Amino acid sequence: MTLQARTKKIIALIAVVVLLAAGGLAAVVWKLVDSAEPQLPTITAFAHGKSVTVEPTQHCNLYLEECVENPLGMLDVPAGFPLQLSLPSEISDAPWRLIVVYGDPKTGQTFVDGRLFEPGEQRAVTVPSDPSIQLLGVEIQLPSAVQDETGTAIAHAVWALQTY
Length: 164
Description:
The chain is α+β, with helices and mostly antiparallel strands. It is built from two helices and eleven strands.
């Protein structure tokens, strides 16, 4: 079967139009993705049937420059109920610290506990609570390249959640 010259020209023209449209669509998608604002990682906190997304309270580069600050996250966690935290790979694939603060409502004393996690060790964590001690808050910290006078890395990113 042989095609007439006119049919060949129409098919070629349609092919060119389709290629131009695909190229234009690809350029538009690339431009939209390229110009999108970078999003800082967030943590999801869950307790007592409620969840919140926690933005970084402070997020700087590794040298503690170009910092962005946001308000504390808030989630009511009644005494005796656990708090569950889900971390994105931007946090869990790096070394990170969990700082937990408890308070005794009878004495007013506060207790601080913490743990350092290795890269990839854990993407979620459950913070236990006791009915006699109120969970006051938690912090997730990513260490920076800057160290204090004792040699401890200062956090360049902090996600803080108030739980009372």
